[in-house]
């Protein structure tokens, strides 16, 4: 019976929208709105719209910076807890149309969406159902009607949306509490933007459970069905006290799933602000993460079968500080330097006995793959024409057919022709970055010692 659980877990597959979301890998969350002007991370909903008046708003600059940092998309906080909308919504006057900015003709959602497309970035929307301004909040259907009106505008007026980020937070001690009709929200999103992944409080993407950038040591995308948010909005095993934090620190190991009988594909997103908090605060100038800290974060998220959403916040003028600009630019330069080439692009021999398909597929990035379904450990050996210097190995599973790898080792061939273990890992999933001590070798041997049903590798990269 225990073996049955592992086989069932291996059968979970991503939807096309989940796969497209996973391929985005690294993107930014632009946290902008009233909190930037009031200095409070949580707005109260009573700040006059006239306070919102950025003087140097240039969303093309935002997108250029995001692209230079290696991001593939941007998500904008279209409405935060204070209820102030960054587009001229028809649902409420509490929006940019009542601000002095651009004479009430401004539309920050339009500007950001258009800039993203000019820059070749994906565009997503962040919107929180919690609303401290809207009078109908807490009344039930009347508020759901209001919120669905907001969603309809965002999802019909601004082109293709890659992600709808639904914040499920509601502050403790609030007098007005709304029982949200999550199933209705999901149904509307599906009808208007069927390719958009619904994240955090949604059925497509699982939040990691913290704002510190910490993922699990082994992230599984195939998890017990009880930990998912269903299309009707129910969520059996989500902790009600923390509004979406998954209870278990281990969602996919053999020990964790041995008694489970149903599984879903529910990949992990890690969200963390560049500074101490999400919205700009001039007192936090020196809290920004260094480029080295960002690189470590990248390895532990994008390099550990998760996506990374990095929080960015322009200042009152609508501009990023020199500190943030320098850090993000330098980080992007490091990413291009560290992952810009692949030794296997033009040299080396890949040996993978006993499998199905051409091992040469592992050089390609076209989602072709090599498959192994034998009983013994699977071994892939890469032989190079000479002793090449490198310090990273990147592995990718063909997750279109599920996540299967449970444990693997990496060995390097020494000058004395002996195999020396240089890395041990657990999950691979969409992408696993294996940092190695800087070395020179003519061969690497990757041994997959434990897996579920079969292995399908799509890509190997040596940097």
Description:
- The protein is an alpha/beta fold.
- It folds into two domains: 2-339, TIM Barrel; 343-462, Jelly Rolls (Sandwich).
- It contains ten helices and 17 strands.
- The strands form three sheets. It has an eight-stranded parallel sheet with strand order 5-4-3-2-1-10-9-6, sandwiched between helices. Strands 11, 12, 13, 14, 15, 16 and 17 form a seven-stranded antiparallel sheet that branches. Strands 7-8 form a two-stranded antiparallel sheet.
- α6 links the parallel β3 (122-127) and β4.
- α4 packs across α5, α6 (141-156) packs parallel to α7 and α9 (291-301) crosses α10.
- The radius of gyration is 23 Å and the shape is globular.
- The two termini are 42 Å apart.
- The model is unreliable at 240-247 (pLDDT under 50).
In brief, what are we looking at here?
By secondary structure, this protein is an alpha/beta fold.
């Amino acid at each position: 019976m225990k073996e049955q659980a592992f086989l069932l877990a291996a059968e979970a597959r991503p939807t096309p929208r989940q796969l497209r979301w996973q391929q985005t890998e690294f993107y930014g969350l632009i946290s902008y709105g009233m909190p930037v002007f009031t200095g409070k991370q949580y707005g109260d909903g009573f700040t006059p719209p006239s306070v919102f008046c950025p003087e140097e708003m240039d969303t093309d600059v935002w997108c250029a910076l995001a692209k230079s940092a290696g991001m593939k998309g941007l998500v904008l906080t279209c409405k935060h807890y204070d209820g102030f909308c960054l587009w001229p919504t028809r649902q409420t006057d509490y929006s940019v149309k009542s601000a002095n900015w651009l004479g009430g003709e401004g539309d920050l959602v339009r500007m950001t969406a258009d800039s993203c497309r000019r820059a070749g970035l994906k565009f997503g929307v962040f919107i929180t159902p919690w609303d401290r301004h809207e009078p109908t909040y807490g009344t039930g259907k009347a508020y759901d009607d209001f919120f669905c009106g907001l969603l309809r505008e965002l999802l019909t007026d601004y082109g293709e949306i890659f992600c709808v980020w639904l914040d499920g937070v509601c502050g403790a001690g609030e007098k007005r509490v709304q029982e949200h009709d999550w199933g209705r929200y999901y149904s509307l999103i599906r009808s208007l933007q069927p390719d958009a992944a619904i994240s955090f409080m949604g059925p497509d993407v699982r939040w990691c459970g913290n704002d510190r950038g910490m993922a699990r040591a082994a992230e599984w995308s195939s998890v017990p069905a009880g930990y998912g948010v269903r299309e009707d909005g129910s969520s059996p095993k989500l902790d009600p006290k923390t509004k979406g934090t998954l209870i278990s620190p281990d969602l996919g190991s053999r020990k964790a799933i041995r008694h489970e009988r149903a599984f879903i594909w529910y990949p992990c997103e890690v969200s963390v602000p560049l500074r101490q908090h999400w919205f700009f605060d001039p007192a936090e100038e020196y809290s920004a993460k260094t480029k080295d800290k960002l690189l470590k974060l990248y390895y532990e998220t994008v390099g550990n079968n998760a996506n990374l959403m990095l929080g960015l916040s322009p200042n009152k003028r609508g501009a990023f500080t020199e500190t943030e600009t320098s850090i993000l630019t330098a980080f992007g330069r490091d990413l291009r330097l560290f992952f810009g080439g692949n030794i296997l692009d033009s040299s080396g021999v890949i040996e993978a006995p006993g499998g199905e398909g051409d091992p040469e597929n592992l050089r390609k990035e076209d989602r072709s793959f090599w498959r192994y379904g034998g009983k013994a450990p699977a071994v892939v050996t890469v032989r190079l024409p000479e002793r090449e210097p490198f310090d990273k190995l990147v592995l990718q599973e063909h997750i279109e057919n599920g996540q299967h790898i449970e444990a693997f080792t990496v060995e390097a061939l020494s000058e004395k022709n002996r195999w020396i273990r240089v890395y041990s890992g657990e999950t691979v999933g969409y992408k696993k970055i294996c940092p190695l001590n800087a070395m020179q070798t003519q061969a690497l041997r990757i041994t997959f010692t434990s897996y579920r049903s079969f292995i399908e590798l799509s890509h190997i990269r040596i940097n």
